[in-house]
Each structure stands twice: as C-alpha cells, then as structure tokens.
Amino acid sequence: MDTLTENFIDVTAIEPKLKHPTIFQIFDSLAGGESLTIHNDHDPKPVYYQLLGERGDIFTWQYLQEGPEWWDVRITKRSEEDKETIGEIAVKDLRKAEVFKKYGIDFCCGGKKTLKEVCAEKNIDASKIETELLQMSTEGKASNVSYNDWSIDFLTDYIVNTHHSYVRKYSPELVAYARKVAQVHGHLHPELEEIKTLVLEINDELSEHMEQEEKVLFAYVKRIVFAKKMNQPLDNEGKDLAALVAELEKEHDHVGRSLDKIRILSNGYELPSDSCASYKLLFKMIQEFEDDLHIHIHLENNILFPKAVEMEKEILDLR
C-alpha cells in the first residue's frame, strides 16, 4: 500500500472505545478526493451508517477485501464536483434508471457510487451517459411518482404491497419453469441446470429476507415514525438498526449477484434456435423479475434505509 498517498488504520490495534473516534478524526482531516483505508477483523459496515448519519453522503465506501478473516475498506471523501451518486440520480428521477440499465450500471445495490467511479470501473465513456441523462431531463418533467417525498412508513407499506407481493406471486412460477426447462433442455444446454439452482437459491433467500424485513425492520420503522410524529422517546429495545440494515443490504447484494450470474450464463437472455415456448417464457419472466427487483432494492437501499437510520439517530440524540 502506498502510505504516501493514502491513510491506513489497523482498527484491531485500537482500544474499542477509540475505534470510531479515530476513524472520524482522520476522515475529517481528509481533503476532497483523499482516502482512508481501514483494516478490521469483521465487516465494519456500522461505521458506514455512523458516517452517513453524522457527516452525510460525502464519501464512497469500497471493499478491498471482504473476509472471511479480514476486511479492508477504502473510504474516499468526495470532492465537490463528484458527490452525487448513481442512487441519488435515480431517486431524483427514476426514469434515468433506464439509461443505467442500458449500460449495465447497477443503480440499486451499487447506487452509492458516482457516475465517474462506475464509468471508470466499466471503462465506459462518462460523457456519453451524461449526455443521455441530460437529454432525458430536457424531455419533460421527472417521473410523477416521487418516492423520495413519501413518509418512510408509507414507503414500507408500498414495498410490501407492490414488490414483496410480486416476489411471492411469481417466484413459485419462476421456480417451476426453471425446473421444467432444465429437465427438458438441460442435456443440450447445461447452463440451464446452474440457472435453475440460482433461481431456487434466490427464491429461498428472498422468502426469508422479506420475512425479516416485514416483521423486524419495517415494524421498527413505523415505531420510529410514530415517535417522531408524537414527539415521544423511542425505545429501540436494544436493536442495532445500522447492523440490521447492513445485513439486509448484504443479502440484496447477494441476490443481485445471482441474477448477474444468470444474465451471464444465458448470454444476456439470448434464446437458442431450439428454444420452446417454456424456454422463452422462463427468460422473459427472469428479466421481468430482475427489473422489479432493481426498483425494489433501489427503494430500500437508496431511500428507506438511509432515511430510517437518520430519523432514528435524530430521535435517540434527543434523549
């Protein structure tokens, strides 16, 4: 590591009560564009939410190593011209997500990166995408649905009634078709067996994930909103909201990576010459499922989760 250009902290060598203050002190000393790398023996994602809550969205968070023994994370303070993230762009105008999807840019799980960062990673001409985004802005007003203006308790109900319901309705069909197509065509197209396995894993993971969101996180979000509206103290019952959100985001990322694998295995959902009606329907269903999940995760990662963490902190700080 080049210690001349980058700060480095071995968090494991710091006294527990001084870990976060040390990280914050060095982060605050950074100029725009400068980085701090932290080395830890567990995922330091709670630091991300504390930074987000206390300093705002003025940094990027990049995993250099993700376990199982060590975690290294590079935290970069944004310069003034590079602060708007992919997720923030989509929050302001969800129509622009179509431009991101066109270029394979992840605006939900990867929504915390800036356009310049993503384009550099993918070797894409940023100016071309910026031109298309600007063109979309001039074509008319943003989407009539402004999720960012909704109360977060209402947003949880919307997610359950729209996106969770979608997953519960179509996942069984998706599993059935994945099994059927793999059984019929798997001998000529062996990738279908792996696609079937991934579909089954996605189904199982989302089922458990949604239960956790609805029974724990969403219920707590409603208590947070009620406490704020009624100007009452909030009993968090020992809940670590930042840690819970970090775990849910990790699960989002895992499902997103599984869908990316399916897209690669299917060569971008390219249908072979011998594909039957079921084969075509399977690929169409997966694409529609993926589109819905992108919006689903965007609403949670880029709007609900950050707002819930910030609102909880505001209430708890008034104790």
Describe this protein's structure.
The protein has helices spanning about 20-30, 45-55, 85-90, 95-100, 115-120, 125-140, 150-185, 190-230, 240-265, 275-315, and strands at about 5-10, 35-40, 60-65, 70-75. With about 325 residues, the chain is an alpha+beta fold. It has three domains: about 5-80, Translation Initiation Factor IF3; about 85-140, no CATH class; about 145-315, no CATH class. β1 (about 5-10), α1 and β2 (about 35-40) form a beta-alpha-beta unit. The longest helix has about 40 residues, at about 275-315.
Q: What count of domains describes the coordinates?
A: 3
- pLDDT < 50 runs, ≥5 residues: 1-5
Largest sheet: 4 strands, mixed
> How is the largest sheet built, in terms of strand order?
1-2-4-3
Radius of gyration based on Cα positions:
21 Å
The topology string of helices and strands comes to: EHEHEEHHHHHHHH
Give the overall average pLDDT.
Answer: 87
SS strand fraction = 5-15%
Q: Helix segment count? A: 10
Q: What proportion of the residues is helical, as a percent range?
A: 55-70%
Distance between the termini: 43 Å
- The multimeric state of the shown protein is single chain
SS-based class: alpha+beta
The total strand number stands at 4
The coarse overall form would be: globular
